[in-house]
């Protein structure tokens, strides 16, 4: 259920300053959002997989914390990222 290498590199190149900018908050939020999409699809297909459901909840909580940090430090970047990723807020 991990992201493929191609998906990860495309997200990093799209949201990061360069190809090696994996620590950027925008990149981390985008990677978590993609992982959340995959876990959501998996949990819909396999509703009794409680381990995946727990992982989904942990990923959503982690993304929420990062979004809260980004909103506090870079409001304009936060708004553009929310719009770009299509996250409801």
In short:
With 89 residues, this protein is mainly α. It has helices spanning 5-15, 25-45, 50-73, 75-85.
Describe the structure.
- It is a single chain.
- By secondary structure, the protein is mainly alpha-helical.
- The protein is 75% helix and 0% strand.
- α1 packs antiparallel against α2 and α3 (50-73) packs antiparallel against α4 (75-85).
Question: In one word, what is the shape?
Answer: globular
Helix content: over 70%
Mean pLDDT across residues: 93
State the distance separating the first and last CA atoms.
26 Å
Rg over CA atoms: 14 Å
Determine the strand fraction and express it as a percent band: under 5%
The biggest beta sheet is recorded as: none
Overall SS class: mainly alpha
Number of strands: 0
User: Uncertain runs with pLDDT below 50, 5 residues or more?
Assistant: none
Helix/strand order, N-terminal first: HHHH
Task: Give the secondary structure arrangement, pairings included.
Blueprint: H1 5-15, H2 25-45, H3 50-73, H4 75-85
Helix pairs in contact: 1-2, 2-3, 3-4
Relevant terms:
89 residues; mainly alpha; globular
């Amino acid at each position: 259920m991990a992201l493929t290498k191609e998906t990860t590199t495309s997200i990093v190149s799209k949201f990061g300053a360069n190809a090696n900018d994996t620590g950027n908050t925008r990149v981390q939020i985008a990677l978590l959002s993609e992982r959340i999409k995959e876990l959501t699809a998996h949990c819909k297909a396999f509703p009794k997989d409680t381990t995946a459901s727990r992982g989904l909840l942990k990923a959503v909580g982690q993304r929420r914390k990062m979004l809260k940090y980004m909103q506090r430090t870079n409001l304009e970047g936060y708004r553009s990222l929310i719009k770009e990723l299509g996250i409801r807020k």
